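Predict structure. Chain length: 340.
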Amino acid sequence: MLFTVGSSWRMERELETLQRPYREVGVDEGRVISILREVMDTSLSPLPSNFFCQLVPLPSSLSSRSSYLALSTDGVGTKLWLALQTGYFRHLGQDLVAMVYNDLITCGAQPLGFLDYYAAGVLEEGVYRGILSSIQEACLEVQMPLLGGETAQMPGFYPRGRLDLAGFGVGVVGEEELLGPHRVRKGDILVGFSSSGFHCNGFSLLRRYLSEGELYRSYTFGGRTRPLYRFLLEPAYLYRWVLEGREFLRPLALAHITGGGIYGNVVRVLPSSLQMRLDEEVIWSRSEAEIFLWFGRLAGLTRRQMLAIFNCGVGMVAVLREPREEDIARLGGFVLGEVI
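Prediction complete.
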């Protein structure tokens, strides 16, 4: 089935309706956006205020061409709670790096460096060492060096066994290479790239419906059988191959599919006058969607609600103009729809 999704205020209102199950567990994206619009000075960036990262012009004394520093910060959400509950936290560092790195590359930036923030009431060496090592490995994989960060020991604030994580990344992009809505026009093609699972979004809703016993029960999704918590804690993909394939793929814009799902994120890279048409069957027929369909049945969610909350097996979407099938296949992509 084809769905037409707009980028106007009507889409915002529709998203509010579709995301009601998420608000009922305490996650209200619309409220956050409303406050940000009131407080922030959005005139400082050449990109829309709802883009995936923000830009700062580099002074001419520092660069021989017109360039921008790209800035991004993020965390891993309540996926952290699930990791600590099950004791399986070996990939949390990759999750943290992925949330920042994937946002940075959406504007075409080449990442330059990463900083982490780790806060705990009691520093448990095994957990700390494991997460920090995972951060370092992920940074090396995408050539975004871990430059340092902050480790905050806060006894009495966080109870034993609880901690928080955040990351910050910086990159650089020339004005002529800048990706975004300003390049997109009617007739462009939407190409998706698989996710590894839920990545770092939707866990507050997942936790509402999953008992502790359920987490350790074995399931089969995508041809693999293992405990459910291992599927849920699969690390988020680092979409380095999309950045590396930029020369032949020639993306106009990139959308990182995080909170707000496919609906709420792809519209962020569309001009306000355009809409997108999605082929829903392409999304739901893929093996990556199996675990989302299972959870949707468990939680009583419609497919449209899931598309407004989860990535549903699609972690990154590129907007392309007249792409060649062999180039899409070369990077493991698949056509999702078009801009109308």
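Summary: The chain has two domains: 1-40+179-340, 48-178.
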